[in-house]
Amino acid sequence: MTTPCAQSDRYFDPHIETMPRDQLERLQEVRILQLMPYVYQRSPLIREVWDEAGVKPSDLRSMADFKAKVPFIDKDRIRRFRDTHGDPFGGLRCADAPHLRGVGFTSGTTGDPTPLPRSEHHTTIDGIQREMWHMGARPHDYMAYALFTFREGLNFDKFTASGIRPVCVPHLPFEVANLVAITRKFRPTTLFMLSTPLIMGLQQYQQKTGDDLREAFSSCRGVVFGGEPLSQSLRQLVESWGLEIFQLTSLGDIATCMECSAHEGMHTWEDLALVEHLDPSGNQPVPDGARGEMVVTALADDVGPLVRFRTDDLVEYTSKPCTCGRTHGRIRPLGRKGDEMLIQGRSVLPLDIFPLMHQFPATQSALFQLVRPQREAEVLKLRVGYAADLLQGSKEELAQAICAAVSAGLGVPAEVELVENAELLKNGPPNKIPRVTKA
Ligand SMILES: [Zn+2]
Question: Where's the AMP-dependent synthetase/ligase domain (predicted)?
């Protein structure tokens, strides 16, 4: 039986994580009304966008005013400001040194990385500390920390508040032997993080060396997986090593957003970000649980806060309480708005392709790309990675079988080009491949 004490030990910050929803919404309103005059005065981008829309901070007296009046920004607008004004911060910077500690970038998977000014207190860490604690990490525990390199913001020294001690290893598939070695040496309780290429690297390492990964990872209470959807076969593989998987995504580049022990969506930290869930092609909210675009406003960043930033991320969002006891909302990521294709009028996202790849031994790694010269097409063109040693029959037979699976599963015609997995992986960044490509 769970005692109240053990219950509260589930949360790194019980006050914030379980704050009643009405209080959380009042906190958001207070933060918004405090922050907006400050941002308008200091951020050249926000001032330009608001002036165009004829909005002033004095027009905002409530959250309802904010949602009704404040104009949106997106990545294109930030990049345009950067290019036309020669401002490396894209007009987002509100403060200078010592508060401004550098500039970060979005991952750039879909194009030019977008600049994001970073403060000395990176709010991303607030979220990650809660998430790692909930996975079971405690002060003085080691955490195997294999982060892909351009996520500069997640400096490992920032973990000091929670007392978790990161041991850093490169996020590189050919260096997984190091990852295995340090888990044996330091016995970390958590592992941050695995990606499709890293899991494939571990699988090859296991096949080549016969090493017992279940034993190597036996100290880990949980492992983070992020970057993109997890294929069913890779999930089974990781679980066969005795690891519980917690999927992670980005909360519109403001914070992280990770599954809890309930595994029913990823928690949106709503003291750090105001999350809106809107019609992807309009400005109106969509119903709780429906498919919508995530729009975020940073609530705890006074160096470069995003305000009504259209993330281009399609999500299902709910603010219903979670069985883990937290009151913050949850999302299920569906893909990028810019990745959606309309094949003969039917919506197709990369997420829809993952389960189909599970049907064939040679495509279990689910490395594939949608070829998308434009949004609408008559036939779905797919480039699919395969493992040559697992091919049953000819390549042509596999391509035909995948086309039949797409037709049966999604109701659209397909053309499939097969490429060896190693070739597709060259399209990096190291943690994933672009799921949509123009050609
Ligand atoms: Zn939860």
Answer: 101-296
Alpha helix positions (H), 241-366: 350-357
Peptide bond into 98 cis (omega under 30): yes
Angle separating helix axes 350-357 and 395-410, nearest 10 degrees: 120
135 C-alpha vs ligand 1 centroid, how far in Å?
11
Q: How far is the CA of 181 from the centre of ligand 1 (A)?
A: 32
Q: How far does Cα 381 stand from its chain's mean position?
A: 26
Q: Using CA atoms, how far apart are residues 262 and 126, in angstroms rounded to an integer?
A: 20
Whether 267 maps to a domain, the answer reads: no
Is residue 347 in a domain? yes
Q: Can you give the CATH number for the domain in which 345 is found?
A: 3.30.300.30
Domain tally for the chain?
Answer: 1
In a domain, 14, yes or no: no
Asked whether residue 195 is domain-assigned, the answer is no
Distance from the alpha carbon of residue 66 to the mean position of ligand 1, in angstroms:
28
Task: Report residue 311 as tokens.
Answer: 């993330």
- Domain range for 382 is 340-437
Give me the tens of pLDDT residue by residue for the chain, a chain 439 residues long.
Answer: 333 345 568 899 999 999 999 999 999 999 999 999 999 999 999 999 999 999 999 999 999 999 999 999 999 999 999 999 999 899 999 988 777 767 766 655 555 667 777 776 666 778 888 999 999 999 999 999 887 754 444 555 666 677 888 888 888 888 899 999 999 999 999 999 999 889 999 999 999 999 999 999 999 999 999 877 888 889 999 999 999 999 999 898 888 899 999 999 999 999 999 999 999 888 999 999 888 999 999 999 888 899 999 999 999 999 999 999 999 999 999 988 888 898 998 889 998 999 899 899 999 888 999 999 998 999 999 999 999 999 999 999 999 999 999 999 999 999 999 999 989 888 776 667 888 999 8
Structure tokens at 394: 């000819």
Q: Which of 239, 230, 434, 424 is nearest to 333 (CA)?
A: 230
